[in-house]
C-alpha cells in the first residue's frame, strides 16, 4: 500500500483553485489534458474531478491555493466514499491507464490512448469488500457496459486498501446437445430422494442422473426428480398414491427454502444439454459438466430475484472456483428469464 507523500516532478507546475466539488485550472492546465488525458477542457481552462486533482497534487504536477495534500484529502473526503475511489483512480493511473470519471465510476482507456485520440476499454465500478452486490443493479450496469462494447469491471477495495479487480460477463449459455431419449419410469419417494430402477450403465445413469443406491436402483435428488416429473418421464409414488407435479413441488419447497430458483436454474441447464450435479462440496448449488462427465467446467449458484450478496462471499466463491479450475457463475432469476453472471478475477 502506498504512503501519502508527494512525488517529485521535473516537468511543469500548474496552479489551480477549488470550485465546489472540482478543481479549476487556467489555460496553462490544458497541457495536462493534451498530453495525459486529465480533466475536461472548458473555454477558460481545465476542470478536474476530485480524484484527478488529488492525484496531480500527490504527483506534484499542480498546486492548489490554500491546500496541501493532507488538507485537500480532508476536504474531498467530506464526499462519502471518495477516498476508496481515489485509491482505485491512483492505482489505474500508476498502471499506465488514462482514466476519466463516469459513466459508472471510471472510464478507463486502452494503454497509450486518451480522450480524443483513442477509445476506452473498461467501465469500472468501485466497491468495498463489505458492500452488498445487488444482482439486478449489477446486471443493468454490466449490460450497459456491454452495449457500449466495454468490459465491465468491479474494483474492490479491502479494509487494508488492497485492490482486486473482477471482470463481469453476462454469459448466454448455448445449447450443447439434445437430451437423450428417456423411457417413462416409476419412482418411490424416500425422504428427500426418489428411487428408480436402473442397473449399471442404464440410460438415466449415462445421462448423468442420480446416485447409485445399489446394483439395481438409482437415487434421484429433489431437483432431478422434479425435472423428470415435469417432463412426464417420472411418476412419483408415495404411500400408495401418485404425487402430482404440484404436490411434489410443494414437498420440494417445504424441504428447501431455495427450491424455486434452484429448480428454475436446474431445468434450464438440463434443457440446454448440460449435466448439473450437486455443488455442495464447493459451497454452491451445482457443478456443471459441459463436455462429458470427466471434469465439471462450471460452478453455478442460483439467485432469487431481488437478492443481494456481500462482496466478501462472492470473492470466496470466485477464489475457490479458480482453485479447482472452474468458472464461477450466478444464475439470477431476472425479468428476461435467467441471467448468468460470471465473476472472474483479472489483472489489469
TrEMBL record:
A GO cellular component term found in this entry reads: cytoplasm
Every copy of the tRNA intron endonuclease catalytic domain together lies at: 82-165, 261-340
Q: Where is the tRNA intron endonuclease N-terminal domain?
A: 30-70, 186-248
Q: Which GO terms describe its molecular function?
A: nucleic acid binding; tRNA-intron lyase activity
Q: Which Pfam families match?
A: tRNA_int_endo, tRNA_int_endo_N
Which SUPFAM superfamilies did the record assign? tRNA-intron endonuclease catalytic domain-like (SSF53032), tRNA-intron endonuclease N-terminal domain-like (SSF55267)
The UniProt keyword set, sorted, is: Endonuclease, Hydrolase, Nuclease
Q: Which GO terms describe its biological process?
A: tRNA splicing, via endonucleolytic cleavage and ligation
Q: Which InterPro entries match?
A: tRNA_endonuc-like_dom_sf, tRNA_intron_Endo_cat-like_sf, tRNA_intron_Endonuc_cat-like, tRNA_intron_Endonuc_N, tRNA_intron_Endonuc_N_sf, tRNA_splic
Name-wise, this protein is: tRNA intron endonuclease
Q: Which organism is it from?
A: Methanosphaerula palustris (strain ATCC BAA-1556 / DSM 19958 / E1-9c)
Amino acid at each position: 500500500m502506498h504512503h501519502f507523500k508527494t512525488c517529485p516532478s521535473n516537468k511543469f507546475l500548474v496552479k489551480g483553485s477549488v470550485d465546489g466539488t472540482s478543481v479549476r485550472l487556467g489555460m496553462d492546465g490544458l497541457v495536462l489534458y493534451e498530453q495525459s488525458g486529465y480533466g475536461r477542457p472548458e473555454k477558460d481552462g481545465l476542470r478536474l474531478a476530485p480524484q484527478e486533482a488529488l492525484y496531480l497534487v500527490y504527483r506534484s504536477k499542480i498546486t492548489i491555493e490554500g491546500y496541501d495534500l493532507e488538507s485537500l484529502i480532508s476536504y474531498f473526503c467530506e464526499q462519502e466514499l471518495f477516498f476508496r475511489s481515489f485509491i482505485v483512480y491512483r492505482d489505474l493511473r500508476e498502471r499506465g491507464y488514462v482514466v476519466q470519471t463516469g459513466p459508472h465510476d471510471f472510464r478507463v482507456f486502452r494503454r497509450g490512448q486518451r480522450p480524443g485520440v483513442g477509445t476506452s476499454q473498461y467501465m469500472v465500478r468501485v466497491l468495498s469488500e463489505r458492500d452488498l452486490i445487488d444482482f439486478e443493479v449489477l446486471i443493468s450496469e454490466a449490460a450497459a457496459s456491454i452495449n457500449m462494447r466495454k468490459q465491465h469491471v468491479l474494483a474492490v477495495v479491502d479494509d487494508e486498501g488492497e485492490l482486486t479487480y473482477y471482470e463481469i460477463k453476462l454469459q448466454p449459455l448455448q445449447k450443447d446437445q439434445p437430451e437423450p431419449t428417456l423411457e417413462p419410469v416409476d419412482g418411490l419417494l424416500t425422504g428427500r430422494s426418489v428411487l428408480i430402477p436402473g442397473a449399471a450403465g442404464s440410460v438415466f445413469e449415462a445421462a448423468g442422473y442420480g446416485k447409485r443406491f445399489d446394483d439395481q436402483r438409482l437415487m434421484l435428488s429433489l431437483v432431478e426428480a422434479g425435472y423428470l416429473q415435469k417432463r412426464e418421464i417420472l411418476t412419483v409414488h408415495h404411500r400408495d398414491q401418485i404425487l402430482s407435479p404440484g404436490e411434489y413441488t410443494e414437498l420440494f419447497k417445504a424441504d428447501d427454502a431455495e427450491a424455486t430458483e434452484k429448480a428454475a436454474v436446474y431445468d434450464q441447464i438440463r434443457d440446454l444439454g448440460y449435466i448439473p450435479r450437486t455443488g455442495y462440496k464447493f459451497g454452491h448449488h451445482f457443478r456443471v459438466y459441459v463436455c462429458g462427465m470427466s471434469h465439471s467446467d462450471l460452478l453455478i449458484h442460483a439467485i432469487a430475484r431481488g437478492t443481494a450478496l456481500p462482496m466478501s462471499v462472492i470473492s470466496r466463491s470466485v477464489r475457490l472456483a479458480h482453485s479447482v479450475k472452474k468458472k464461477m457463475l450466478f444464475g439470477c432469476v431476472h425479468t428476461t428469464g435467467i441471467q448468468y453472471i460470471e465473476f472472474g478475477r483479472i489483472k489489469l
